[in-house]
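2 proteins. here.
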Amino acid sequence: MSTTDILYSRTDSVLGDFAIRPLDPFADAELLHGWVTHPKASFWMMQDATLPDVEREYMRITAHEHHQAYIGLHEGRPAFLMETYDPSELELVGLYDARPGDVGMHFLVAPSDRPLHGFTRAVITTVMAAIFADPATVRVVVEPDVANTAVHALNEAVGFLPERQVTKPEKEALLSFCTREQFEAATGIAQGVSI
């Protein structure tokens, strides 16, 4: 991978360098399989996925015009998965009134034997900063499982405000929104940079 593959990067004052690159569904499948089937990834709902299942799923995502997937790096090593999608076309169709500039988001932190204090918060901050680096993004939309209290706290830490519970085919979800202004107020990270 060359530095030209990096789509976004930032330096966390405590934890160092984070970056985001495109996901390669073939080259990254084995890595992703270990992440999405790990017990800590239960809310990702791929616990029983085989390696070919993961490869097929991420081939589908990377080929979709309204869904994108990325690998997040910490100090140059793969450390998290980031997905963005158009909520007017996927995931939330008919469940809320989508607005121009809305971007849906999912993220998954890789399992680690040596957890770093504040790492997951640094990851979600990086994910959000990358999304807001696109000037067309007005608001980020998330729909985590209502039972996923850990991610609700992380979402709140970067500026999300929950709106209401929605019923999706696979889960009861907490629909939450974060505007650029809410993100900047919560994190102190001003977004005027470009990807």
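next one coming up
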Amino acid sequence: MTMPREHTDVMRVLRGLEHGSPAVRLRTALAVGAAPDPRFVDELVERCAVEPDFHVRDMLTWALTRHPSSLTVPKLVEALRSERAQARSQALHTLSKIGDGRAWPAVTRALLTDADDEVARSAWRAAVVLVPEGEEPWLAAVLVTQLGRGGRETRLSLSRALIALGEEVVMPVLGTATTASDPRVRGHAIATERLSRDPDAGSGFAVEEAKRIVLLGTTGREADRPC
């Protein structure tokens, strides 16, 4: 008995996305994105949760952005409830690329403070893209609670997310954080302030300057005074 063509096409794509070769998976995701088809949305979202190769994951995200957001956003929001960290992280990343504000309610405090650094970083990036007007102060208040967490890349991601919310929203909460009792929080807040004033300075410079300031027991303003 001959299978319907629609079933055959889905099985072909499924085999391509699960192939042992990353090159084959990459070509399959590219082909699906080049010729969007609603039948493949579920497979793309499911593959995002388990795909080990960064470049393939990026292509899967691109393929999803090529489909109508009315189809992809609900599936991606559903993936945010997954117990698998990569499923949450990649769904957030893809939502940030789609940029559909209807996904904003799904970017919860729990995701913004997720114990997994990659999930949290993806949530921060998605949040600053999706946040509706008027919700920026709430978002800044949540993000500032994450100051001092993780390694260099995590701290830089948080600094960039805070800066993206705008000076009027962020500077008051950063100012408070620069006097925090935790030196990691204090240093990260100072580094973020400096980075906002001079984005070209680079995160390495800002972080090292913050460490120096904290060790000296001074604030950012005091360190800027001439000798």
